[in-house]
Amino acid sequence: MQNNHIKNLSGLLLATLFISTSGVLGKYIAMPSEVIVWFRSAFAMIFLYVFCRFKKIDLSIQSRRHLFPFLVGGVFMAAHWITYFYALKLSNVAIGMLSLYTFPVMIAFLEPLFLKIKFNPIHLVLGLLVLVGLYILAPDFNIQNTQVQGVLFGLLSALCYSIRILILKQYVQQYNGVMLMFYQVVVITIVLVPVLFFMDVSGVQEQLPYLLLLALLTTAIGHSLMVHSLQYFSASTASIISSIQPIFGIILAFLFLKEVPTWNTFFGGSLILATVVIESIRSRKN
To answer: What does the buried/exposed string (b/e) look like for 97-121 if buried means 16 or more CB atoms within 10 Å of the residue's CB?
Structure first.
């Protein structure tokens, strides 16, 4: 039993490391966010399809009633990725990722609505701590400030991601995690086809290696492992344990992009991540 828990926890942490590469790659790739997301999804779709066939993973959908939730989940995933890349490009990797990592508290607020569980008042306190952390991240609330814009896009990305997680959470016991991720990127690839005709795609040849890395390592492997982990952890717990992702992202940004976080980023980010640690300890006791 203990070995299984360690194995499941290791898988979740590995997923977190792989997903954290999205910060550096999203900031580095010199293409519009919508175009990056389309190529990311299209390549990931191919990788995941080949993997599913190789592992003989059943791709059939058990009920027509599941089609709509899968479609809506894919749309929210597309919105999450696009707004996240906007956050990265408008500010930096640290602010983009830390703003996104308000999603564990958002999930705590939304989970009672989606999964019909009782709301815990402690989440009001945690929500207040997150708001203070966000204020420290962007103390000068001027909408013209690109850092503020980055925080706002990060919050919108967090909301979209929270809703997507809670939609998929209801199906992880019925479907393989890789299969679920495959249908997510199928939906995103189809929905975003118009961007190829209306946005600049001229830089794709130069950016191809990074797009492939984003599709394979970050998306196909990282997100599939993350969805798979929902079989063994609650949505809140999985998001809480993976809160080390911004730390991974900030380290990678320092190594590869030479981005050095400000003291405001350290203090505000620490407060946001502290709420995640508090919720993690509280969840273990329940």
So the answer is: bbbbbbbbbbbbebbeebeeeeebe
